[in-house]
Design brief:
Strand order of the largest sheet: 12-13-15-16-17-18-19-20
Structural class: alpha/beta
CATH architecture of the largest domain: Alpha-Beta Barrel
Low-confidence stretches: 1-14, 16-40
CATH class of the largest domain: Alpha Beta
Protein name: Diguanylate cyclase (GGDEF) domain-containing protein
Radius of gyration: 49 Å
Largest sheet: 8 strands, mixed, barrel
InterPro entries: Biofilm_reg_signaling, EAL_dom, EAL_sf, GGDEF_dom, Nucleotide_cyclase, Rev_trsase/Diguanyl_cyclase
Keywords: Membrane, Transmembrane, Transmembrane helix
Pfam family, one: GGDEF
CATH superfamily of the largest domain: EAL domain
CATH topology of the largest domain: TIM Barrel
Distance between the termini: 160 Å
Helix content: 40-55%
Number of domains: 3
Number of strands: 20
Mean pLDDT: 83
Number of helices: 18
Shape: elongated
């Protein structure tokens, strides 16, 4: 200890016990509180106002780390007397807690870093994946319609800058639906993937192949300076797809139809219109024959415009009741007596005049309008036939497409009920296309109609591929001999033989035979000689409006 008078006075004024007591009673400052003097305190020091050490309660032996140190002032009545310092080692458990706290802090920092960085990477990955899925086909990995449209815009812009034409090819896999139905969707998917590989093998690196949906694909061919370049690519594609596929151990053969549209040098190019032109050319190629290619032409565009206008007018005609029915007499050949009539649809299209059914019925079938038109025809034919003399039948053609829509039986039953026409006086004429579907539902509907009392006739017999086979599937009430055989009757031995055979078959089956398109007395005499019992044609009466038909029947009955 120091020995100055000042220090002695200090020690006399503040004995060690008092110093400890004052230190224990010190207020809680903004630093860590000073612990009370007890056995845990390992070192006490007293300093005078000048900072000199006056007293120390332990030896000079160093305290074990970690050490907690606290200094507080000692104040007298008039002035500051000095400072007291307390120091001790932290207990082992506190050291452990500090280590744990430090570790927890580091772990928390690591977790924070992971939770801060990982979601950003996951979000970026998810956004990249979403962007890919929005622009690509999931099955084949090809660009989809959206990405294809963007690539086409870029190709058109580049073509315009370079002054070079380009070609767009639309592709449709022929007979894919049949394969998909036979092998199931899984087999169809494998076929699409293998077809994609073959298509990709036909292209250059600069070409773009996309799947637009279903079995439809499209190709952008830049720098197609000549039509022959696009044609050569189309030929390669057709040849590649024509080779048989091996799907699930089965040999599968399909084809592909190709429509091609070329940009014209020096002309403004609309990418969307270019794709539409290629799609129209594809439609033309499929209509001509499958497995073929076709170039777009302005004439094709004109026909497309007309087709769209025709469809619009058809919808208006159905909603505004523009259709009407004409009736062609059906005559019992031996007695020349009128026994019924076939209802034939007529349409006076505003601004165009009479439109033959052959021009608008196929479009009605493609668009589904045939269901509404067919229902109207049934109702109108039954209503008008109910005013005819008893015993006269009315024949109504039913399209194969109508059987694909639900409710055909209910439509027929409602038409009969609303008109009051006896079911035996209604005859439904169907073509072989109805039975070509070869499903139980179609036959079930026909059986229900027969059970109702409605007669069923096979129209255009002999023009299909399996007419005789269909006669085994369903018992018809009448067989109608196609007019193509009647027109050459007496001139072509083959036609004579076919008519003779059909009449013989009908007689053997116990059903009635009807010859359509009889226009001469010689044809009527030959049919009479062969034993055909029913005819219709210009020789006996042209199709006529309802009022004229009623007068025609009355005149024939009075004769």
């Amino acid at each position: 200890m120091g020995g100055s008078l000042e220090t002695s006075a200090l020690l006399q004024a503040a004995e060690l016990a008092e110093l400890a007591r004052q230190a224990a009673r010190l207020p809680q400052a903004d630093t860590m509180p000073l612990p009370a003097p007890d056995s845990r305190v390992e070192r006490w020091r007293v300093f005078d106002p000048n900072g000199r050490l006056v007293m120390e309660t332990s030896g000079a032996e160093a305290l074990a780390w970690p050490v907690l140190v606290r200094r507080v002032p000692i104040r007298g009545p008039a002035a500051r007397l000095g400072e007291v310092e307390a120091a001790r080692s932290i207990r082992p458990e506190l050291g452990i807690a500090a280590a744990v706290a430090l570790g927890a802090g580091l772990l928390g920092a690591a977790i924070f870093a992971v939770l801060r960085i990982l979601p950003v990477r996951l979000l970026r990955h998810a956004l990249d994946r979403a962007a890919y899925l929005s622009a690509h086909d999931l099955l084949t990995g090809l660009p989809n319609r959206t990405l294809f449209a963007d690539r086409l815009r870029q190709a058109v812009a580049q073509s315009r800058r370079a002054g070079q034409p380009l070609a767009v090819l639309c592709l449709d896999l022929d007979r894919f639906k049949e394969v998909n139905d036979a092998l199931g969707h899984a087999g169809g998917d494998r076929l699409l993937c293998e077809a994609t590989q073959r298509l990709s093998g036909c292209l250059r690196e600069s070409d773009t192949l996309a799947r637009l949906g279903g079995n439809e694909f499209a190709v952008i061919q830049p720098r197609a300076s000549r039509p022959q370049d696009a044609e050569a690519l189309a030929r390669r594609i057709i040849a590649a797809i024509a080779a048989p596929f091996a799907i699930d151990g089965q040999r599968v053969t399909i084809g592909v139809s190709v429509g091609i549209a070329l940009s014209q040098p020096g002309q403004a190019i609309d990418p969307l219109q270019l794709l539409k032109d290629a799609d129209l050319a594809l439609f033309q190629a499929k209509g001509r024959r499958r497995g073929d290619l076709c170039f777009f032409s302005p004439e094709m565009n004109r026909r497309l415009t007309e087709r769209r206008a025709l469809e619009t007018d058809l919808r208006i005609a159905l909603s505004e009741g523009q259709f009407r029915l004409h009736y062609q007499p059906q005559v019992d050949l031996p007695s020349s007596r009128v026994i019924g009539a076939e209802a034939l649809l007529r349409w006076d299209r505003p601004g165009h005049g009479n439109v033959p059914p052959g021009q608008f019925i196929p479009l009605a079938e493609e668009t589904g309008l045939v269901a509404g038109i067919g229902a109207w025809t049934l109702r109108e034919a039954c209503r008008e036939a109910s005013t005819w003399p008893d015993g006269l039948t009315v024949a109504v053609n039913v399209s194969a497409v109508q059987f694909r829509f639900p409710g055909l039986f209910e439509t027929v039953a409602a038409a009969l009920a609303d008109s009051g026409l006896a079911p035996q006086r209604l005859e439904l004429e169907i073509t072989e296309g109805v039975l070509l579907q070869d499903n139980g539902e179609t036959l079930a509907v026909l059986e229900r109609l027969r059970g109702l009392g409605v007669k069923i006739a096979m129209d255009d017999f002999g023009t299909g591929y399996s007419s005789l086979g269909y006669l085994q599937k369903f018992v018809f009430d009448k067989i109608k001999i196609d007019r193509s055989f009647i027109s050459s009757l007496g001139q072509d031995p083959n036609s004579d033989a076919i008519v003779r055979a059909v009449v013989g078959i009908s007689r053997s089956l116990g059903v009635r035979a009807n010859a359509e398109g009889v226009e001469s007395a010689e044809q009527a005499r030959m049919l009479m000689r062969e034993g055909c019992g029913e005819v219709q044609g210009y020789l006996f009466g042209r199709p006529m409006p309802p009022e004229e038909f009623s007068r025609f029947v009355a005149a024939r009955q009075a004769a």
